[in-house]
Amino acid sequence: MTITDADATLSALAANAKAWPFEQARAVLKRVEKRDPEAPVIFETGYGPSGLPHIGTFGEVARTTMVRRAFEQLTDGARLTRLIAFSDDMDGFRKVPTNLPEQDMLAEHLGKPLTKVPDPFGTHESFAHHNNARLRDFLDSFGFEYEFYSATEQYTSGAFDEVLLRMLERFDDVMDIMLPTLGEERRATYSPFLPVSPKTGHVLQVPTLERNAAAGTIVFEDEDGSKVEVPVTGGNVKVQWKPDWALRWTALGVDYEMAGKDLTPSVQVSSRIAKVLGGKPPEGFAYELFLDEQGEKISKSKGNGLSVEEWLDYGPQESLSYFMFGKPKTAKRLYFDQIPRAVDEYLQQLAAYEGQEPAQRIENPVWHIHGGLPPHGNAGQAPGGVSPVSFGLLLNLVSAAGAPDKETIWGFIERYAPGAGPETHPFLDGLVDNALAYYRDFVAPTQMRRAPTDMERAAMEDLLARLRALDPAETDPELIQNEVYAAGKTQPFENLRDWFKALYEVLFGQSQGPRFGGFAAIYGVRETANMIETALGRETPA
């Protein structure tokens, strides 16, 4: 697939672009530049379906896709690329996540491959099939181009057989790498091969008692104490995860895979094993972890992070991709209060893109979010593909109107931007839904508008008079903003930031917000004046 901008100079500019996806793409190009140009370049991202998909899972696919698109731009589409989304669904079910139904039923299937554990939701063939479907549905909703690979299918189909037999032949070399990384107790029983018991179906963590490289088999002690010989091929064994990572890289020829910073030691071990197996470890980088509200690492088993569905309740898909683009090597707090900022920064970058030179465009996050083709002037969005109203302004509009219905909010918008409507501006229509939901769930429950101080009251009375003097149909945000500035200057505020902070605390119950002139322009001069008049009559918090 070729991803290019209308300006043909982008591919040349990509060679020196500073955006991190281009830095990564150049490393991939260096890796493959002497290889057969007809051979596909393989990007991979892994998923452990022992818990429900979460934003961290999506982040790996989104970021890897950004590197893939940057590589395609760098090579002007001359090399075929593939993205494999690999699910480790043959892994043994070791722990029941606390956020799932049917806890007792799931506990009865501990130890079995995830594809053999019943679906607690009752909708799919197995727990792994359910979680795989959730992952695929979400990735599909974002339009990602990927190929889904199931570990169970790869093991049972024979796709891994050649490298599995090689691992058996080089068993001692793999053990020499693994054993120094393990504690004394685990070293005594460790084997890279986890046999699947023919009797119980459990994935067993037991020693390998005998090996027959010529026959391609191992001998182990089953749960009933009997010795059993099984082939390492055909899905009879599952490989421990660090050697499994190396197995996968080697068998699939993976060229690029990123991983969380906490997995750096594992990446190093797997890379050494890949070389033993005759493979070449992929390029990649260690991204920092997402943190929850308390600053702890998010975990799909704990369920302490935002789900993808939760983010999309309060912000558009593009805002989530924007959040993923920014500073991947810096730990970031992933909580609801990050959504409004991500939405508005995305809109600002999209608005800026139209007027940028090609060299600036490929550094702009929206180039990477949209694979080199950000929306511009398309049907259903404002010029430049940008909503004429910021998300922060929408939140204040909903707050000022007392959490109204959607039609009321659109009434204000249509007065401010004639011709705009839900059918012509579906992106903005979605933002209205997001703002209403965000206000309902996060703003309204804690909102507390305070009474103004004497100095603030005097400035607000002056502003009220100025607004009453304006034409009620005035919609020029700059003209209104100038009146707000003028009213603030009538009082001895230490700085005008304190004046605007007072306005937002008294009128909206928060300490900051978008430009007040823009809010008044869309809410209406008369309505804003009425809101101030109501606030001036407030003696106690509301």
Written description of the protein model:
- There is one protein chain.
- Among the domains are: 10-182 and 239-287, HUPs (Rossmann fold, 3-Layer(aba) Sandwich), CATH 3.40.50; 454-536, Orthogonal Bundle (Arc Repressor Mutant, subunit A), CATH 1.10.10.
- The protein has helices spanning 10-14, 20-32, 55-74, 103-107, 127-141, 151-157, 161-169, 171-178, 184-187, 241-252, 264-276, 308-314, 317-325, 339-353, 358-361, 365-369, 391-400, 406-416, 426-443, 454-469, 477-488, 496-507, 516-523, 525-536, and strands spanning 41-47, 81-87, 147-150, 193-195, 210-212, 217-221, 227-231, 237-239, 259-260, 286-287, 290-291, 332-333.
- It has 542 residues and is mainly α.
- It contains 24 helices and twelve strands.
- Residues 1-7 and 377-385 have low confidence and may be disordered.
- The chain is elongated, with a radius of gyration of 29 Å.
- The strands form five sheets. The protein has a three-stranded parallel sheet.
- The chain is 46% helix and 8% strand.
